[in-house]
Specification:
The chain is α/β, with parallel strands linked by helices and about 325 residues long. Helices cover about 25% and strands about 25% of the residues. The protein has helices at about 15-25, 60-70, 135, 150-165, 180-190, 285-305, 310-320, and strands at about 5-10, 30-35, 75-80, 80-90, 90-95, 100-110, 115, 130, 145-150, 170, 195, 200-205, 215-220, 225-230, 230-235, 240, 270. The longest helix is centred in the C-terminal third of the chain and has 22 residues, at about 285-305. Bound molecules: flavin-adenine dinucleotide. The site of flavin-adenine dinucleotide has 32 residues, from helix 1, strand 2 and helix 6.
């Protein structure tokens, strides 16, 4: 168990979590961000044109700016997946495979996670030829043969991006034709490097140390085929993975954490921000704003425990 005790632990290191970390660490709170990566979904956005202050910016670059800002105020980072969170005597713990971290407050900002295929060997090959992010990992497959598994604009975007890097791109879709943005459909159909594999689903990923092939089932004929590839990109969209907080805080029927105007959850001392919450409009600026509110609310929570003055916004509430 980690010896250190933190004022705030933030689960998730993307727009919401990093923004919260900027606010808490700048207020002098001892802050730890436990995250699988820096940037989350924004890593997949190559041109962001609606983040105020930037006419156009790449998601990776934007998230690096957030990260550097949080770090400059003293926020600490560990790169691990959180498996469990809980509360003992008014203090919180966050468990990963490697360690347990403890804190006075908790900010849940773990957003959305790529939807998995749910087939044998999928998790075994993550980072070994299997990726959920063509923008992040595409350049590793220069002149190789890759497959994109998915549907809609996300899958077509990924296939077109990979066609600029790889020698050949198989686009494996469940329907008999491409569906989505007309421009993307036309571009995919005219791109010589893209070969469409319609009416198909992956039933197994195969390989020794890295991905070597995919076992495909034709959904119309039930025929099974093996497709040799060097890499596979899964583009099935995103889901909220909240299993590890079931029963800990209240969630809605979509599995989103219910928060109030101060980003407070149903459990005192636990706040949530960004795409993981029931906030409408899942966007970067909204996640960042939620993160800021959660950071300030966590600060006020700790100040109250210490019998110290809190941030102004709450004075209005208290005087009602
Ligand atoms: C392709 C694409 C393009 C987009 N384009 C735009 C755009 O142009 N403009 C815009 O405003 N929005 C855009 N969005 C939406 C925007 O990216 C999201 O709204 C935003 O990233 C949400 O931020 P977040 O911090 O709430 O969550 P996320 O970005 O989902 O980040 C969650 C973080 O939590 C971490 N995490 C998850 N589970 C765990 C765990 N168990 N343990 C530890 N860490 C964990 C992840 O690694 C990640 O760091 C786009 C999204 C996609 C997918």
């Amino acid at each position: 168990m980690s010896e250190k005790f933190y004022d705030v632990i933030i689960v998730g290191g993307a727009a919401a979590g990093l923004s919260a970390a900027i606010y808490t660490s700048r207020q002098g709170l001892k802050t730890l961000v436990v995250t699988k990566d820096i940037g989350g979904q924004a890593l997949l956005a190559s041109h962001i044109e609606n983040y105020p202050g930037f006419k156009s910016i790449n998601g990776f670059e934007l998230m690096q700016i957030f990260y550097q800002q949080a770090e400059s105020f003293g926020a600490e980072f560990v790169y691990e997946e959180v498996k469990e969170v809980g509360e003992i005597n008014g203090k919180f713990y966050v468990k990963t495979i490697n360690d347990t971290y403890n804190s006075q407050t908790l900010i849940l900002a773990f957003g959305k996670t790529p939807r998995e295929m749910g087939v044998p060997n999928e998790s075994k090959f993550i980072g070994k030829g299997l990726s959920y992010c063509a923008t992040c990992d595409g350049p590793l497959f220069k002149n190789k043969i890759v497959a994109v598994v998915g549907f809609g604009d996300l899958a077509m975007d990924a296939a077109l991006l990979l066609a600029n890097i790889a020698n050949k791109v198989y686009l494996i879709i469940p329907s008999d034709k491409l569906i989505g943005d007309e421009d993307l459909v036309n571009k995919c159909m005219s791109e010589k490097k893209i070969t469409l594999i319609p009416n198909s689903e992956v039933i197994e990923v195969k390989g020794e140390k890295r991905v070597e092939s995919l076992v495909l089932k034709n959904t119309k004929t039930s025929t099974i085929n093996e497709l040799k590839i060097d890499g596979v990109f899964v583009e099935l969209g995103y889901t909220t993975k909240t299993d590890f907080i079931k029963g800990f805080v209240k969630m809605n029927e979509l599995g989103e954490i219910i928060v109030d105007k101060n980003q407070a959850t149903s459990r005192a001392g636990v706040f949530a921000a960004g795409d993981v919450t029931d906030t409408p409009f899942k966007q970067l600026v909204i996640s960042a704003g939620d993160g800021a509110k959660a950071g300030l609310a966590a600060y006020n929570y700790i100040q109250r425990l210490r019998g110290k003055p809190i941030k102004k916004a709450d004075w209005r509430k208290l005087s009602k």
